[in-house]
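Here we describe the complex-level prediction in full. Unlike the single-chain runs in Section 2.1, the two entities below were treated as one system.
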Amino acid sequence: MCSACGFPAAPGHWTEAGATTPHDRLRARFRRAQVLRSVLPAYGLTAHDGADVPGIQLGTLSGANAIVRDLEEVWREAERLTGQAIDPLDPRFIGDAD
Amino acid sequence: MDVRLPPGKFDNRDDAGGPVAGAADNRMRLTLLGGFLGSGKTTWLRHHLHHGLFADAFVVVNEAAETSVDDALLSQSAELAVVSGGCACCEARDELVALLRSICDKRVSAESARPDRIVIETSGLADPAPIVAAIRSDPVLAHHIVISGIVVAVDAVYGLDQLRQEPLSRRQMELADLLVVTKLDEADEAALTRLLATLKAINPGAAISGAVKGSDVALPDHSGAEPEELDALGEAAGGLPIRALKLDIGEDIDWTAFSVWLSALIHARGDDILRVKGVVTAPSGRLLLQSVRKIVQSPEILPADAAGDDNSLVFIGRGFRAEQLDRSLRHFAGLRG
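The structure predicted for the assembly as a whole is:
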């Protein structure tokens, strides 16, 4: 367990397997935040990962927020905050109505 | 022995039964062996214990019935344990997890032999997906075990009927990495080629091999055979049919954007996306990616020099089209339009 953030040690999330060096990890973390910032506003959510707090910060426009540690938790928490799953096949992402 | 195994999945196997060579980490490799009732699982496994493919493996046999028979047939194995009186995917899941944990404990103690490989022969009524989920979600097992493949035995004679009528049997075949068509000598050629074409259509990502009494036998040519159009069954009846499609990721999409997208897709649509598999290149190397419903395995890093169809993934499920996946992925990666 990390005494700073309190998250128990767990096997890394599968999405983090793409980076093994500290440099790649940091770059992947910022890229992940960039992608989240571009897709979550469609559901009225904000995302922030500035390396100042361990984890990804999610927020709603009404001020509710949560700190999560990996993408699996991002989607779970986003569903809880908005009441619906963030669906990549939603027309707002694929631009059609079927 | 010449067992045709799916590319990338069993690359670290050592037929002599020695330690797993060249593995990306030192976790135990677990092979899940499934297949419908009477499909020939035990016969296939017994042959491969005898011939050394799984000679060093710890074999776990699951029987739905209270009385176990298969353990007597598998006395060739290095070590054997039986989980009986329920399916490992439902009633006996806790018992299976406890047993696997005890194998992990044994492995870290210096007093006993340390298995590198585990084979679980499931009961004919088990769905592989909840077993994979139970192993992946247990914090101890996730550290010690990596699931290296799902092998499903398919009866050459009754396989097509089971595909038509039994939702569970169809699910087992859809989730396989390797489909072993058993009892090849008992099926007539026309029915067999139709079965093979249908298997290829429902699970194009799986390797298919043939067997008679466990030994490998060449499959007949089925390139011209028409697959059977299968109706939806069970929960899916009245819904959409399950389809398999290929998604080419392309060079311009990076691993991070792809993994954000896939994790969201699996969270939202995991009940409809039964299987995703393929090799994706990332800064850390070539990653072998595979999911069973909502569970994604920790990707394994494959050797850089091995030839393969990189950045092309197979999706098996219902309710989506290839162009929708492509458009959505490009949106996530910031490549709209």
